[in-house]
Each structure stands twice: as structure tokens, then as C-alpha cells.
Amino acid sequence: MDKQDGRSAFESGGVRLDDPWYDALASGWGELDGAAEAAAEWGGGQTPRAVPAPEDERSSPHDEIYLAVQRSAAFQEVRRRYRRFVLPGTAVFLAWYLAYVIAATAAPGLMSHRVAGALNVAMLVGLGQFATTFLLTWAYARHARLRRDSAALDIRWETQELTGGNVR
Amino acid sequence: MTYDHQALAWVLFSVFIAVTLAITTWVSRRRHGSAEEFYAGGRLFSPMENGFAIAGDYMSAASFLGISGLIALFGYDGLLYSVGFLVAWLVVLFLVAELVRNCGRFTLADVVAARMRERPVRMAAGAASVTVSVLYLVAQMVGAGSLVALLLGGTGQQARTWMVIGVGALMVVYVAFGGMRATTWIQIVKAVLLMGGAIALTVLVLLRFHGDFNVLLNTAAERSGHGRDFLAPGLKYGEDWISRLDFISLGIALVLGTAGLPHILSRFYTVPTARSARRSVVWSIGLIGGFYLMTIVLGFGAAAVLGSDAVRTSNTAGNTAVPLLALDLGGGAGSTGGTVLFAVVAAVAFATILAVVAGITLASSASVAHDLYASLRRPRGTAQDAQRAEVTVARIAAVAVGAVAIGLALLAQDLNVAFLVGLAFAVAASANLPVLLYTLFWRRFTTRGAVWSVYGGLLPSITLVALSPVVSGSRESLFPGMDFAFFPLDNPGVVSIPLGFLMGWLGTVLSPEAADEARHAETEVRALTGAGAA
After folding, report:
1. Mean pLDDT, chain B, as a whole number?
2. Is A6's Cβ below 8 Å from some Cβ in B?
3. Residue A40 burial by CB count (10 A; 0-12/13-18/19+): exposed, middle or buried?
4. How far apart (Å, rounded) are the C-alpha atoms in residues B411 and B351?
5. What's the Rg (C-alpha) of chain B?
6. Chain A closest CA to B413's CA: distance in Å?
7. What does the pLDDT look like over B326-379, one tens digit per residue?
8. Closest-CA distance of chain A to residue B487, Å
9. How many CB atoms are closer than 10 A to CB B268?
């Protein structure tokens, strides 16, 4: 999305009806006749009150809206949920993978220890890497779908209504 | 390899080329020359289609033939590659795919430029992307030349030269005329062929051993000539501490490099939302994981059925293990089944190279036109005119990149392909990943930090390779006669990746200006929610 597009749509207050998200937006559709009003209306207390007058070229209502959204409790919650899954998850699989690579090169004795039949520790750990990758993929997709998607979509809508950026 | 094999293989190649050219023509019939269409296929692919295309982009001939060949020769040490290539996708899924889909338009530089000063950042990220792409491209084309000439019998210098030129010319046609839409469809066709071929061979291997994986492993160990050691790490990378450190370096580069590969990043823009970007990565992890599990069976299968020595006799790097295995599984040389299976594998390998090469060419032409050209020229005319001009430049850039890659591939014909791929991953991990992660996750990151982190990863990784045994100082070097190898490792990742992160931090700390709060807010909101995303 080009900022230019967003700005011009914002000024004319127009929203194109061929937007694929139109259905999702159907409630509260008619009230959108100015960003400031919508800003005041949206979300009750936790959200931006009004949009200050622009001081210079860069400090436009556009910037103010994104700053306000970023500080809003709803957005903080989405970000917190994302980070609380992703940061520990990344740490775990990177550590597990590094341990595997380092063990394979530094402790060949341990890795060649036989477990059952032709299977040794190295083979099991290698297949374990595949298993954990699939498992973490599934867990991430599930977490994102259940805990993040709808909240993020709501914020996306509210933000785009504020900036008048509903054009694709 | 008899005349029959080659004739049938050539027929199958020609069918594949005809089908892909038909796709390209069909796609370019309805084009209107918008940048959206050329770079991102109109953003209308479904997650499943894009998942197949990502898998197609990622599973290069180096994976299909190279990894199974390494397993057939070195047993367990080859398997370490499979694991690294797959685990890398968790980095992509967790930290990159959705956020990049929301933040960017067509290239890596778009994401960074969203909150930085446009020109210096575009120049740096564009230069890094083009470097990585060209390295990767040369690796694929060198592989294509030697491999296809080998499979088709003509191992002479001339056959290889013509193969490289032929592959280069075809990929330029796909990209310049079909853009992202044609490239994506070629990837999908190729991924289906590759999975089909791999599944068929895996089933045949398992049938040969009555479904008993244990017997398969034991036979492989026996016939490899290494006994039990074949199933444990150490055959290839266990010699001394330098080779072990080299392997760790390669392992880190593989895992962190994928998320910085330009042709993988550009795939996330072909779907409409971040959610579909996530679902396409889930699809591709399933496909890629399944595929690498099969390469393990094929690699050990080749060792068990053919024996490591037979594999090594045919090709010292093991690249022909899978075609030879197919020949044997189909009933041996001279049988109809053997002929057909061999030809199918050869055709799939060829399709793989063509498709991967087309994907990378598209990504690098996007970087040239959208980042380098667009940040140098003065804007003139309307936005739409500018966009059309840019797409034209991108088509020309595809031809130019293709020509450069053909030239370099002809020069580098004798270099080891696996090394070139590892190098491309190391450069991607050093130059592209730090700047991407800092942009998405670090509030205080500044323009200077971005520029420093790109060059701070790019220049050391290239310099260290120039000073490594790969370029000089040993018999397998590019210049065997000279010796200026001051850096002992083949793969620079273990040094250059931390340097990329360090320089990004240093540049930020030493910046005269603070980060732009508002644009960071916009990037963050946009990354996590998709507000304002194209």
C-alpha cells in the first residue's frame, strides 16, 4: 500500500466498495465520514482521542494514528501474544539444532551409541529434528489462528478506517 | 548409459520445456504490465499453490541429487544437510513470513525502506540481494551444466557449455515474458513432478527391503565399506578441528540463510494476506520435510543397492546416485523399466534446475529494477508510467542477469556446487537476515545501522571466501597455483553472520539521528496486523 493512495483516500473520505473485506466491515459502515470522528468513536477509552493538527509535513494525522494504535492496549496484547510464543520457540529450536550440530561434530562417540538394531543416537536425534520441526510448525499455526488472527484483523480494520486506507 | 535412455530422457525434457513454454505464453497473453503482476503474480495465488511453489523454489537439484549422493557416499554426514535445510524453515515461519508479507511490496529492501531513509537502504539491500542471487544462480547453472551433460552422455566440455547456455536462455524467456505468474506455475509443475518421482523411488526402495528400514540401514552400512561408522557422524567432517568448525559454520549458515534468500522472500508477496503467507509456509514445510525424509531413504538405498564404490565410480561427488538407483530399481540397464525410470529422474532433475534458476532470476531482476534502478532515477511522469517503465527495466534486467550468470557459470564450471550453495546461504545469512530482523524487531534501529549491517555482513563474507582455501592454496582451489589463503574455513558463516549483527548494532549506536518513532510504529502495526498492507 502506497502512502500516497492512503492519504488521498483519507482526504476525500472515500472507501472503495469493491474492497474484498467489505463484508467484514459491514457493521458500522455508514459512520465513516471523517478520521477524527472515527478515532474518537473507536474503542472507547483506550484509544486515541482526537488527531492533533499537523505541525509539519511529516507529523501528519497518518503518523499520529499509527502511534496511537501502537500504544493501544489491543495492539500491545497482540504483540505480546506473538512475542511470547515466537521468542521462546525460536530460542528452543535454535538451541536444539545447535546442540545437534555441535554434538555431531564434537561427540561422535556419544552419537554412534547404538539404541536398537541399526538405529543409533545420531539417527534418532536427526529424526527428532524432523519431528520437532513438524510439531513446532503445527503449534505455531494453531497458536496464531486461535490467539492472534481475529484480534489482528480487528485492529487492521480499525486502523484502516482511521487512516482511510481501505483501498487496496 | 545407452542410447535408449538418452533418447527417452530427451523426449521427456522436450515435453517439459513445451509445457512450461505453453504456460508462459498463456500467462503473458493476458498481461497488463503492472509491477504487481510482474513481481507478485497479482497476489492472487492460494496458500496451497504458493506452498508448492515455495517448495519448488527451495528443492534444488543440489537437494535432490546432491544430498542423496552425499548420504550414499558419507552416510550420516549427508543427513546433516537435510536437517539444516528443513529446520531453517522454522526461522522463516516464526520470524519472517507473515511480517514480511505485511510490510513489503516486492523485495527485501521494501521492508527496510518502510522505516528508513529510502535511497541508501535500497542501494545496500538491493546490492546484497543481487549478490546472493547471482551466487546461487551460478551454483545452479554450474550444476545444471555438469549434471545434465552427464545424464545425457555427452560429458565433453562442449556439451556442458551448450547446456549452461541453453538453461540460461530458457530461464530468461520464462522470466522476461511470464513474470511471477509463469514462474510460480513452473515451480508448481516442477514440485509435483519432483515429489512424484521421489515418492515412486522411495516406495521401490522400501519394497526392495520388504519395508524394513533396519535391514536397509544394515545393508547400506555393510556395502558402503565403512561398516558401523557409516551410520554415525564423522566420515566427512570428522577429520580435524578445522573441518569440524567448518561444518558448524555451514550448519549455522544453512539455518539462518534461508530466511535471507531473495527468491524465497519474494514468494510471500504472491498471496493476498499474511495469514495465507503463513499457510503457504506450513504447506511448504510439510512438502519439504517429506521430501528430505525421502532423500534419506534414497541415499541409504543407493548405498545399499549399488554400494558406495559404484556410486563414486560414476561421479566422484555422488551426484548420479539417484539416477543410477532408478536404473537398478527399474530392472537394471537394458530393461524397459530401468530405461523409463532413469529417463524420468533425468527429466525431473532438469526441470528442477530450470525452475529454480527461473525463480532466482526473477528475484534478482526485481532487486535491480525495483531497488537499484528506482532509487537512482529521477521520477518523471505519472505513477503508472513510472511503474510501466520499471517493469520494462525488470524485463531487461532479467536478460542482463541471465547473461551475467551464464558468463560466470562458464568461468566457474569446475567449482564444487555444494560449496557455492553453502556460500550463497552464508552471504544471505550475513547480509540480509540481520537487517531484516533488526527492522522488524528493534525499535531503535536507524538508517545507518541498516546500511552498516548489510555491508558489514556482505563484505566480510565475500572477503573471507576470497582468502579461504576454496579460492587458493589447495589442489581443488579456483587458483591452485597461488596461495593467499589466510582464512582456514571454506564457509565464512561462523564469522560473518555475527559481524553482520554486530555492525547493525554498532551503526545504530553511533547514529547521529534517532530512529523515527512514527515510522517504527507504522511498521510494527503493519507487520503484526496487516493494516495498510498491499
Report:
1. 87
2. yes
3. middle
4. 23
5. 23
6. 31
7. 988 888 777 888 888 888 888 888 888 888 888 899 999 989 988 898 877 766
8. 20
9. 25
Q: Flag if B80 and A101 touch (Cβ within 8 Å).
A: yes
* DSSP-assigned letters across all residues of A114-151: EEETTEEHHHHHHHHHHHHHHHHHHHHHHHHHHHTHHH
Give the Å distances, CA to CA, from A47 to A36, A147, B512.
12, 21, 33
Query: What are the residues facing B78 on neighbouring strands?
Result: none
Position A21 scores a pLDDT of 42
Count of beta carbons in the 10 Å neighbourhood of residue B76:
26
Distance CA B222, CA B319 (A): 21
B224: pLDDT strictly greater than 90: no
Contact state of A106 with B244 under an 8 Å Cβ cutoff: yes
For the ranges A5-9, A80-84, A115-119, B20-24, the lowest mean pLDDT is seen at A5-9
Give the single-character DSSP code of B415: S
Encode B429-450 in three state secondary structure.
HHHHHHHHHHHHHCCCCCHHHH
- DSSP letters of A28-91? T-TT-S-HHHHHHHTTTTSS---PPPP-SSSS-HHHHHHHHHHHSHHHHHHHHHHHHHHHHHHH
Query: Which residue from A minimizes the CA distance to B244?
Result: A105
Share of chain B above pLDDT 70, in %: 95
Candidate from A118, A133, A159 with C-beta closest to B525: A159
Contact residues on chain B for A2, CB-CB shorter than 8 A: 383, 534
Question: Is A141 in the B-facing interface, judged by CB distances under 8 Å?
Answer: yes
Q: Where are the alpha helices (DSSP H) in B258-382?
A: 262-265, 274-305, 308-314, 321-329, 336-366, 374-376
Question: Residues B498, B500, B501, B502: is their CA dihedral positive or negative?
Answer: positive
Give the mean model confidence (pLDDT) for residues B113-127.
91
The answer to whether the CB atoms of A137 and B293 lie below 8 A apart is no
Rounded to an integer, what distance in angstroms lies between the CA atom of residue B373 and that of residue B481? 39
> CA B38, B90, B455, B59: dihedral to nearest 10 degrees?
-50
> What pLDDT is recorded for position B5?
67
Chain B residues within 8 A of A100 when measuring between CB atoms? 83
Residues of A in contact with B519 (CB under 8 A): 63
Distance CA B468, CA B514 (A): 39
A119-120/A114-116 β-pairing: antiparallel
Which of A101, A111, A154 is best to mutate for the B interface (most B CBs within 10 A)?
A101
Express each pLDDT in B252-291 by its tens digit.
999 999 999 999 999 999 999 999 999 999 999 999 999 9
Which grid coordinates belong to B414?
569446475
The model's pLDDT over B4-28, given as tens digits with 9 standing for 90+, comes to 667 787 788 788 888 888 888 887 7
| pLDDT tens by residue, B187-204 | 999 999 999 999 999 999
Q: Is A100 on the interface with B (CB under 8 A)?
A: yes
Other residues' Cβ atoms within 10 Å of the Cβ of residue B385:
11
Q: pTM for the complete prediction? A: 0.86
CA distance linking residue B71 with residue A121, whole number of Å: 17
How far is the alpha carbon of A150 from chain B, nearest alpha carbon, in Å? 10
The answer to whether residues B150 and B319 touch, using CB atoms and an 8 Å cutoff, is yes
